[in-house]
Design brief:
This protein is of the alpha/beta class and about 550 residues long. It has 23 helices and 10 strands. The strands form 2 sheets. The protein has a 5-stranded parallel β-sheet with strand order 2-1-3-4-5, sandwiched between helices. It has a 5-stranded mixed β-sheet with strand order 7-8-6-9-10. Helix 17 crosses helix 19. The longest helix has about 50 residues.
């Protein structure tokens, strides 16, 4: 809707314009009036006016003078000139001021509305152009960060072509020879916890908030541009740009500012993060090297000594293959195939204990160990018949696929995550094998009958058949009328009588043959069962 201002000292003319104008059809919501040029300018200054209708001959400030002021101060405000004089000077000023139309008194309805329609069409065309301009700028402003991100990523992965993208180099400051650059990699160690607790699980919103904080804090000395790493959602890449500084100064400033930024992230958002800073460089094309140094710096952080946020610009050697994992996978497999889940856990526990007792266990080693374990456990689970859809084979976040958090800010949390991941695979194997392997409770009885002399525990059968202790004990009692321990004792005692009937066997030998720790322990068990000692039993048999 538009607002029109009529500036004329003659009230009858103002009234005629009000009556003859098709204001509703033209989309005019309000028609204001001013009796002279001075009052008209006051109204224009006080409120938005879309169109003015100016009488050329007025007392005080003439229409020609008013048009000159409008041309100078309000060049985009369209005007329609009204005059009772076919005067060349008025016409010349109207042309110079680019008025929309020139109406002669007396005004008729047709000419008035034709002039008003021309003015409204001009206003609508201008609004369309402005809207398109705004939309283009919004689109450009929204796409510029993505364009810069794409350029930086292509430089980092060494696919950028300077000649092809030469026109875009000024966007990232690559055209200024005084600029210096450095890459920073920031890794959020507890991202999952913060994402769920404070950002409604929206990782993009988390990236936006963290990126804004990094850009603002680093911006005290640097021009900073942050964006999420496409390879790992808990990492952000920050490109720092500083004009005319020495490398040593950039290195010092970047270390200081990133420490400040990470402290703010922890205080305000509860994010525990580490950051690696790459070597400063004078050419934007060297950002790839700086990024690789930043990654190496992060991977070299010692998890055993990590307490809270940490920033480093010291790169470490590439992470080497951890032999403890690949060397123990066969032990894992043998333990799991034998139903010895406790043994599988102890193998992992032993490896974790050895890592924790060393001088260093880096973030890079932790990440590689985790990835290697998942690959090996996936392969082993597939070979043992676990369906592919039950395993995180091609998942970007395998730990999250298991329903676990892949956060760890300490070695203790890393150990717990590995143990929980192992539990996931053991459970999948258990479910698969229990579904594929028919279970007979008589198998347990047969085992006891043949191996009664062993240290038999119910957990052995629970692990082997992937069933709960309670379920096995219940089945056994229903089938054979007694518990497993009671049956073991019954078999041993029956065998003890049989052996005691052989006078050539000493009681000590019989004790060992039945699996007891010593003669006294056997004698006590025998007396408790038969209310007579082994010696008394043997004597009675002789006398009988």
């Amino acid at each position: 809707m538009y607002r029109v201002l009529i500036i004329d000292d003659e009230e009858p003319l103002r009234e005629a314009i009000r009556i003859l104008g098709d204001w509703k059809g033209l989309g005019v919501s309000e028609v204001l009036e001013a009796t002279d040029g001075k009052r008209g300018l006051e109204l224009i200054a006080q409120q938005p006016i879309d169109l003015v209708m100016v009488d050329m001959k007025m007392p005080g400030m003439s229409g020609a003078e008013l048009l000159q002021v409008l041309e100078r101060d309000y060049p985009d405000l369209p005007a329609i000139v009204i005059s009772g004089y076919n005067d060349f000077e008025y016409t010349r000023q109207a042309i110079r001021s680019k008025v929309v139309d020139y109406l002669l008194k007396p005004i008729n309805r047709h000419d008035l509305n034709a002039a008003l329609r021309k003015a409204v069409d001009l206003l609508e065309a201008r609004r369309v152009r402005e809207s398109e301009f705004i939309n283009r700028n919004i689109t450009l402003n929204m796409s510029l960060p993505k364009l810069k991100e794409k350029m930086y990523l292509s430089i980092i992965d060494r696919s950028f072509r300077s000649q092809t993208n030469e026109a875009f180099l000024p966007l990232i400051g690559a055209d200024d020879p005084d600029n210096r650059f450095a890459a920073v990699v920031l890794r959020m160690l507890n991202m999952e916890q913060v994402r769920q607790a404070r950002f409604h699980s929206d990782v993009d919103l988390l990236h936006f908030a963290v990126g804004n904080m990094l850009n603002e804090i680093a911006g005290e000395y640097f021009q900073a541009f942050s964006f999420a790493s496409p390879k790992q959602d808990r990492e952000l890449i920050v490109i720092l740009t500083m004009k005319g500084a020495y490398q040593e100064d950039i290195a010092y400033r970047s270390l200081h500012q990133m420490n400040k930024a990470l402290a703010a992230l922890q205080d305000l958002l509860g994010i525990v993060a580490v950051a690696g800073i790459g070597t400063p460089c004078s050419s934007i094309m060297e950002i790839a090297n700086s990024y690789e140094m930043a990654k190496a710096a992060i991977n070299g952080i010692n998890l055993l000594k990590l307490k809270g946020y940490f920033v480093t610009n010291t790169a470490q050697k590439p992470v080497q293959e951890n032999p403890l994992i690949s060397g123990r996978i066969q032990l894992f497999r043998a333990a799991i195939e034998a139903g010895n889940t406790a043994g599988a856990r102890s193998i992992l526990s032993e490896a974790l204990k050895r890592w924790s007792s060393g001088e260093a266990f880096t973030l890079g080693e932790a990440e590689q160990t985790l990835n290697r374990c998942i690959v090996l456990l996936n392969d082993m689970s597939l070979e043992l018949g676990v369906p592919r859809e039950k395993l995180p084979l091609m998942e970007e976040h395998p730990i999250r696929f298991m329903g676990l958090s892949d956060d760890f800010t300490s070695f203790e949390q890393f150990s717990q995550m590995l143990d929980e991941a192992l539990s996931f695979y053991l459970e999948q194997i258990r479910l698969t094998q229990s579904a594929n392997r028919p279970f007979e409770i008589g198998d347990i009885k047969a085992y006891i009958d043949n191996r009664y002399y062993e240290d038999i525990k119910i957990s052995m059968f629970a692990d082997k058949y992937f069933l709960s202790r309670e379920y096995i004990m219940k089945l056994f009692k229903q089938q054979f009328g007694c518990g497993i321990h009671e049956y073991v004792q019954r078999i041993r005692m029956a065998k003890a009588k049989e052996l005691l009937d052989d006078p050539s066997l000493k009681i000590q030998d019989i004790s060992e043959m039945l699996g007891y720790k010593d003669k006294n322990y056997f004698s006590k068990a025998f007396r408790n069962y038969f209310s007579i000692s082994p010696t008394e039993y043997r004597t009675a048999r002789k006398e009988g």
